[in-house]
What does this fold into?
Amino acid sequence: MTAQIIFYDIASTKPLTTWSGNTWKTRYALNYKGIPYKTVWVDYSEIELRSKEVGASPTRKKPDGSPNWTLPMIHDLSTGAVVADSTKIAAYLDATYPDTPRLLPPGTLGLFRGFEAAVLSLLNGTLYQYIIPGSCKLLQPSGQAALRRKREAMFGKRMEDVTPRGEDDVIEWKKVKDVFGTMDDWIKMNGEGNAFMMGDTPCYIDLWMAAYGQWVKQTVPEKWEDMKLWHGGRWAMLLRNFEKYETVL
It folds into this structure.
C-alpha cells in the first residue's frame, strides 16, 4: 500500500527503533488508525533544518524566546499539510481521516490538553532526570552533542550529573511512581477493571501514557523493570495492549 504520510522520527544508534516518547505517540496513532505511512529518520542535530525544509511551524519557544522545532512531524502527501506536535497531529488525523478509529472523542481536545499540562508539570522535574540522559546515550555523536547543548542548559549541569544517585535516586524515583500512581487512580475512577482511561476502547490519553512507558523502557531499561510492576502491572499491561501498534513502516 502506498504511503499517504511521511512521518519524521528521531534517528538513534538502534536501526528502525523509536525511542522518544513524543514520537511514539505519533507512531502509535498512525498504526492504530491504519493509515499508510513511511518513516524518515532525522538526526537530532538536524531537526530544525529538516523541519524548515518541509515547512513546519515551530512547536514552542526556547528559553531565550527563539523558535524551537521538534519532532514528531508529519507531511500528508494527500493534502499537502505539514503538522508538528504529537497532539496536533492526533487532532489532524481525526479530522482528516474520520473513517478511522478516533483518538480524541468529540469535544475532548481541551480536556486532554489540561491532562497533558498537569502531568507534564510533574514529569518535567522527575522522570526527565532519567529519560533525557538515557536518550542522549542512544543518539549518534552529532545528535548527542546537540542534545547536550540544549538539555544541559535546561538542567544547569553536565548530562552525566543529571540522573540522581544513591538516596537521591530512591527519593526522586518514588516521585515518578507517585505521578504514575495518580494516572492509575484516574483510570480506576471510570471502573476498577478498566484497561484504558475510557473503558475497553483506547483513546489518545492511553496512547500518550503508553508512549511514556516506551520512553522509559527504551532509555532506562533497568527502571522499566521496576515500573512494569507498579500499580498491579498496569503499565506493562498497557504496553502489551499496544504491541500490535508498534510496527515501524
Remarks:
- The mean pLDDT is 95.
- The CA atoms of residues 13 and 140 lie 6 Å apart.
- The chain is about 50% helix and 10% strand.
